[in-house]
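Reply to dn_fold:

You asked what the input looked like. This is it:
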Amino acid sequence: MTIGNQIEYHNSIDKGKRRGIIRAMMPSKGYGFIEDAKTGKNIYFHAMGAVRPLYDDMREGMEVEYMVTEDGRGVRAIGVKEIG
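and this is what came back:
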């Protein structure tokens, strides 16, 4: 199934891990965006989706690994953790 930004997902959850770079952080709102390494598309992530380091310690430019899921609000990254 194709979702908004043309990334293909299977059964609403992309079971593979993805890599990307945090491109934007909105600390006062508790979310940010990851640029997917393969597609170049931006993927939303919420502070609750951060695993390590905690959201407050994440920075723009940090290389991360994550999984993608879709819920009633759309596509988002979960299990976000720093690589390295």
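The first strand starts at residue 2 and ends at 3.
Hope that clears it up.
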